[in-house]
UniProtKB/TrEMBL annotation:
This is Tudor domain-containing protein 5. Belongs to the TDRD5 family. The lineage of its organism: Eukaryota, Metazoa, Chordata, Craniata, Vertebrata. Coiled coil: none annotated. SMART domains: TUDOR. One of its GO terms (cellular component) is cytoplasm. It comes from Poecile atricapillus (Black-capped chickadee). Residues 359-416 form the Tudor domain. The keyword Repeat applies.
């Protein structure tokens, strides 16, 4: 009975945090989905003796208000307590008007930093709200759907369901309509009006048609069709990468492109003439396979600079990974994913890079296929004869995968620095010594599918400590203040080394600091937010955020 009571108290905090974050409330079904997505397990109905979610929430009258919508469905809304009334007010003030896609220009980072004397900070007042962000995997699925041929908008839902086995539910990512989704991907998807209706065309598809007019058709004819080597289990969406910008077609060096295509197709020609069925894959390691090299990290960001960020993967407020909203880096990462899929999904090329058992060892940089997409990973540990645990250098999470899914990484894919930056929220520590599940849940809600403003404080042992701010509300929401006001964190005015990263920091173990490998370039933030340090002599720029007053 005491365990059930403790579980119920924890669950009340989690449910209240989830419902407060949902301005319009949630249906019982949506609450189940949100809980599963955030906590990675279903609501503990049976453990508490309930038959349904509705029965559960009726036993939380001080936490949940049950309302009826216009269509008759039940909506669950949060009842704020003394510690959460301020947060509920901020959520209630959240802007809901449709965003204008053309409003892409953000002012230079001329907003002031909150000072110790600023009770109501006006920082970021000139920064407007960012549009919702599709997870990178979902973007890639839409682009993949259009990669073979254009598609009528009216047929998109059916085609997506047929291809990926699920409906495309854009509302769960914060979009109000499908047209808003397409506007957010206008750099990669074009809408052409035809007699049959709106036609969705991939910009790279248009570019390839122009390129084919200039490139001899014989080279293109030798390219085999895209054919995945095998099916895998679906990858849990919370752990999948969430990128910040759609792919944009960029200029390509045709000479370099033709050399790569020519060399690759020549390998295929020789292989087929040797006999595909009679000759097993060569056991020799290809000369362009990476064996003893490491990825390098991105260059460090300047102190006190403002930068747009997307939080990719969260363990706790003291351990999470971000992507910087840099157009160039975003395009390069997505281009890398597409190119790796194109190369490794051909059985001939894939078999060429199969890793022998001797190469499957901790610290080995390679790539892995999950849900038909290929990712750069480092082997963290060998679990057993069939499985290894790998670290996703571009996204920040660890996952156990099959050894058979691994392949040597081609040397060409070593150039792009590891894109995931290990981070910890500045100036906070958990009140209970460790972060509670409710605190982690709230932090995930604050970060989820949003482009945020980060204020760089400092680096400690390779971990970036930064403040996070959501500028999509009428009042800027500082995450460290939210965690403090909810009673989950103490704002201590200094950065306490992250206990989680001290126990395990895969980036520090496997990724070289920037500059030790000559292929790293400086991070160039998006035009939305200028990555420039404030004047060192400016009082507002040099003053730290006063957590006690924010």
């Amino acid at each position: 009975a005491s365990k059930q009571a403790q579980l119920m108290e924890v669950l009340k905090k989690e449910v209240r945090a989830m419902l407060i974050a949902a301005k319009a409330g949630l249906t019982p079904e949506q609450l189940e989905e949100q809980y599963m997505a955030m906590v990675c397990k279903p609501l503990p109905l049976r453990d508490l003796g309930f038959q349904s979610t509705l029965e559960l929430v009726t036993q939380m009258p001080e936490v949940v208000r049950i309302c009826s919508s216009k269509n008759g469905s039940l909506i669950l809304k949060a009842i704020a307590d003394d510690s959460t009334k301020g947060i509920a007010k901020l959520v209630a003030n959240q802007k809901v008007k449709i965003r204008k896609a053309s409003k892409k220009t953000y002012t230079k980072a001329n907003a002031t930093f909150p000072t110790k004397n600023s009770k109501n900070p006006q920082s970021f007042q000139a920064l407007s709200a960012g549009t919702p962000v599709l997870p990178a995997a979902v973007k890639a699925e839409l682009q993949d759907l259009l990669s073979s041929s254009p598609l009528l908008l009216a047929d998109l839902d059916k085609a997506f369901l047929r291809r990926f086995g699920r409906a495309f539910q854009y509302r769960q990512y914060g979009f109000l309509s499908m047209f808003e989704v397409l506007r957010s991907m206008s750099d990669s998807i074009v809408i052409e009006q035809t007699k049959a209706g709106s036609l969705l065309v991939l910009r790279k598809y248009l570019a390839s048609r122009i390129e084919q007019e200039e490139v001899p058709q014989a080279s293109a004819a030798k390219m085999p069709p895209l054919e995945p080597i095998n099916e895998t289990e679906s990858f849990y969406q919370e752990a999948l990468p969430m990128d910040s910008e759609p792919v944009q077609t960029q200029a390509v060096d045709l000479d370099d492109h033709l050399k790569r295509v020519s060399g690759w197709t020549n390998d295929l020609y020789i292989f087929h003439h040797q006999g595909f069925e009679q000759s097993p894959p060569s056991p020799e390691i290809p000369p362009d396979a990476v064996q003893d090299r490491s990825l390098c990290s991105l260059p460090p960001l300047k102190r006190k600079c403002l930068v747009g960020v997307i939080v990719e993967f969260i363990v706790s407020p003291s351990q999470f990974y971000i992507h910087v909203c840099s157009r160039e880096a975003s395009y390069k990462l997505q281009d890398l994913m597409f190119e790796m899929r194109h190369v490794y999904s051909h059985k001939v090329a894939s078999d060429k890079y199969i890793m022998p058992e001797s190469a499957v060892r901790p610290g080995q940089l390679c790539c892995v296929m999950v849900s038909k997409w290929w990712y750069r990973v480092i082997i963290h540990r060998v679990v057993n004869d069939q499985e290894v645990e790998v670290f996703y250098a571009d996204y920040g999470h660890l996952q156990i995968v099959q050894k058979s899914w691994l392949r040597f990484l081609k040397w060409h894919y070593l150039k792009l620095p590891a894109q995931a930056i290990p981070c910890s929220l500045a100036w906070v520590k958990p009140v209970e010594g460790t972060w509670s599940s409710a605190a982690i849940l709230l932090f995930k809600h604050l970060c989820r599918f949003k482009e945020l403003v980060g204020i760089v404080d400092e680096y400690v042992d390779g971990v970036l400590y930064l403040f996070l701010c959501d500028t999509s509300t009428k009042e800027d929401v500082y995450f460290h203040s939210v965690l403090r006001d909810m009673g989950y964190a103490d704002v201590c005015g200094e950065n306490i080394p992250s206990q989680e990263f001290e126990e395990l920091n895969p980036s520090a173990l496997y990724v070289q600091p920037s500059g030790k490998q000559g292929n790293a370039g400086m991070v160039e933030p998006d035009l939305h937010l200028q990555q420039e340090s404030q004047d060192a002599d400016s009082e507002t720029a040099t003053s730290k955020l006063d957590g006690a007053e924010l």
